[in-house]
Protein 1
Amino acid sequence: MIPKSHPRYESLMLRQKIAEGVEKGIVHITGLIAHGRGEAFDYLIGEKSQHFATEAAKAAASYIKIAKHPVISVNGNVAALVADEIVKLAETTKAKIEVNLFHRSEERIKKIIRLLEEKGGKNILGLEGDARIPGLEHDRAICSYEGIYSADVVLVPLEDGDRCEALKKMGKIVLTVDLNPLSRTARNADVTIVDNVTRAIPHIRGFYTEIEKPEEVIKRWDNRKNLQDALDFICERLRKIYKEGC
Ligand code: PTJ
């Protein structure tokens, strides 16, 4: 057991959830590497939701609010870390949930659907795999016709760069959560929340209920500028850590 007083308690708990996710067959083995990369970037942003992250969560909530057919895509890491928050977000926004895996396996999809159902999720898509994202090869293209294929707005946390580009080419609004502001997904999405998915998903839900004029938020939204703000913050923080050792 990790004591709550441990300075890195939150981060260690997330690490434990990912490790347990691998043991239970929910997280793909490469999800460990993805998580480690995320941890490093989380350290660089101070393991807190900074101003650029909350602004992006507000923009994401606004896009979901004006969407006709919003879909939340869930992979192994997201399920292991925030299954309960994903279900709450879907309930609040009336978005559909689709389990869509980079390393697709029916067995893992079934396990993730079961986990989401245990948290209260209903009508979770993913197993049918009855449509394909054009421009992608092999199983990575498979999606649900009723879900991602027909969506106008897709929230795809921790997404692969090729798939983000392919979704954009389909004309979709792509919202992502990625701790790395330099990743291809981060740079190609319409909204990139540079934050830990564990903090970003509850923020989107909070803003969804608060925002009254989503069109105005969207009109002002500039993803490139927001990513630049994230990078400026990281550079500044690194200089500070080096000088002051904090
Ligand atoms: O379950 P599957 O088969 O769909 O596979 C999921 C993973 C995550 C393994 C797969 O999509 C993958 O390999 O992703 P990448 O290409 O490693 O990208 C993951 C991105 O998410 C990286 O830029 C990480 O920095 C970032 N990331 C990792 N953990 C978090 C995160 N961003 C936000 N919150 C996190 N907890």
Protein 2
Amino acid sequence: MARLPIIVAPDPRLKGTAEAVHTVDDDVRKLMDDMLETMYDANGIGLAAPQVGVQKRVIVADVARQGEDSAPMAMANPEVVWESDDISVHEEGCLSLPEYFAEVERPDQVRVRYLDRDNKSCEIEADDLLATCIQHEIDHLDGILFVDHVSSLKRNMILRKLTKAKRQGVLETA
Ligand code: NI
């Protein structure tokens, strides 16, 4: 496995639409493994392939809390096939927007269809933090960042500060 460099916003590679995976083969499995290693190394709970510069519809997540056994998940072509009318609000962060957080409203529960690492079609129901995390990661596949869900005032403030930090070389950039 290999740790991959994470792209920091603003960056056009975070604004594209990722392509569907045809088959989960050894190459995609290696990408999933590398993304999990990268996510754990960065203390994240989710990561999407565009964040490491790969425009494929692949996400990984692990929302196990401290003290719980790790619960790595890897999904190709994840798709929300049902969402609850109930909305919940979570404070979200993102490895591509380091050190910034904002409250985002999303459906509280979702059902997600995806291909697992054995190329098998699966469905899970997620709620709470996992539901938020999966929706956040699927957004990345369509070029959407969590700051796109908050006011333009707050979004512009965060992106301006990140641009400045990148220019000053404060942030490690990919
Ligand atoms: Ni993110």
